[in-house]
Design goal:
The chain is α/β, with parallel strands linked by helices. It is built from four helices and seven strands; from the N terminus they run E-E-E-H-E-E-H-H-E-H-E.
Length: 174
């Protein structure tokens, strides 16, 4: 709980009738540190267009991200998508399990970003949801999906309180 602390003083401290003085008022606040918690879903595109270097880079970025997390406070989930989406790792504090889910992704198929975002939304609003935790979606893709559907899914996720970030891979990323 935050507190406002104040102090005041006047100089000079003694006055004769009719003299003026200046008054200084100091106010400062004290708030205890608040550690916010986040539930984060990595959505990784493993469609055919991600074959080779783009998917390798996305996997390396995802692994580095997971390794940098404070999993004593935050949780991570992994969704893989191509023309379909699947929850590969439910929200967890087990970084190794999340990394294993990332490493298991294989390229192939089409690209449906909306399916990936919708799967992430399901995880962030489902039974594993933690009240008071921020919802974060990180999308790793080269694009190439139905834009209107992807925007619809992103808008719905934002309406549900999620913050979305996109990381693009490949020269033709849109």
């Amino acid at each position: 709980r935050c507190k406002a602390l104040g102090d005041k003083f006047a100089l000079p401290t003694r006055l004769l009738l009719g003299e003026t003085t200046g008054i200084t008022l100091r106010i400062r606040g004290e708030c205890p540190e608040v550690e916010s918690r986040s539930d984060i879903v990595l959505i990784i595109d493993h469609s055919g267009s991600m074959t080779g270097a783009p998917l390798d880079a996305a996997k390396a970025a995802a692994e580095a991200f997971i390794n940098s997390m404070n999993l004593g406070r935050d949780r991570i989930a992994v969704v893989g998508f191509n023309q379909d989406a699947a929850l590969r790792q439910a929200l967890t504090t087990d970084g190794l399990a999340a990394i294993d889910a990332v490493r298991a992704l294989a390229a192939g198929g089409g690209t449906d970003i909306a399916a990936g975002v919708d799967e992430a939304r399901n995880e962030l609003t489902g039974p594993r949801r933690r009240l008071g935790a921020g919802s974060v979606i990180v999308l790793l893709t080269d694009g190439g999906s139905n834009v209107a559907e992807a925007l619809r899914a992103a808008d719905q996720a934002k309406l549900e309180g999620a913050r979305l970030f996109t990381v693009a891979f490949g020269a033709g990323a849109n």
